[in-house]
Design goal:
mainly beta
């Protein structure tokens, strides 16, 4: 079992920045790939970014490329999502997810463990 807890969400003006954290406990975190997904009201979960167990491979949704950066610190069992140049359309609940494996996985159903999510609201 892996337990995930997100933090760092909040209210920010368009053009601003936030850094989300995903803290993991339980099994050996280095063996798990991690992804970030978001869900806006009335919409399905949308892939945002993913990172492999080593941090050597990352994937991004086209909508966030060049603005968001995913990284991880395996010594702290934490994955980060740095979000810059935020837009109102980035408003959503952001959740991190983990799956045992070495790649960076982009599909919602590939993940086995999920955090509760953190709200990000970007005002115009």
């Amino acid at each position: 079992q892996v337990q995930l807890v997100e933090s760092g969400g909040g209210l920010v003006q368009a053009g601003g920045s936030l850094r989300l954290s995903c803290a993991a406990s339980g099994r050996t975190f280095i063996e798990y790939a991690v992804g970030w997904f978001r869900q806006a009201p009335g919409k399905e979960h949308e892939f945002v970014a993913a990172i492999s167990w080593s941090g050597g491979t990352t994937s991004y949704a086209d909508s966030v490329k060049g603005r968001f950066t995913i990284s991880r610190d395996n010594t702290k069992n934490t994955v980060y999502l740095q979000m810059n140049s935020l837009k109102p359309e980035d408003t959503a609940v952001y959740s991190c997810a983990a799956v045992f494996g070495s790649s960076s996985y982009t599909r919602y159903r590939q993940y086995d463990y999920w955090g509760q999510g953190t709200q990000v609201t970007v005002s115009s």
